[in-house]
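EI: anyone free to look at a 214-residue chain?
SC: sure, send it
EI:
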Amino acid sequence: MRVKICGITQPQQSTAIASLGATALGFICVPTSPRYVTTSQIRAAVAELPANIDTIGVFANASVPEISKIVVDSGLTGVQLHGDELPDFCYQLRQALPNVEIIRALRIRSLDHLDTAANYTKYVDTLLLDAYHPEQLGGTGKTLDWTMLEQFSPNCPWFLAGGLTADNIVEALSQVNPSGVDLSSGVERAPGDKDLDKVALLFQSLKNIDLSRS
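SC: here you go
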């Protein structure tokens, strides 16, 4: 299972989190976010990472040229779209960045919201389902209604996000079967400052799940 820790701001934390077991790290490229990082900060954070760690830039309503420049300048391996981007925008981004993973994040409020996910599966590599918040794009600490997702089975891999922590990850994964999980505020001391003890507890919880399923 992929495990993405999002909202990384400190280079030393990025290498520590990768060594604990994360398969992907997320960097917020939205200037209004408290977890925002610049291109030079991303470069510093990814410089010492092993080659097998995915590095994902998170964008919201940015233009294709703007995203492409940051991806190239930062050396990112993926883009996560967290704004109002439509399928056609995802198609245009794919043309501009053919070798970069495209993740479409959807903030799910109802089953109707969930139905829109099918519109994107032809144009992106991966979906990410997050909890809905009227003002914030992510990192809110709010959980999704997992029962809504019990039958969710899109034609592409998907991440479960939204208020996940070491304490509730076992319960979440007993109800839904995502390809990966995405955590941010659930492993933080403050926005952008990850708590490595919480990250370690997360991976211990995931290990226990694997043992119980084998």
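EI: The first helix runs from residue 11 to 20.
SC: 👍
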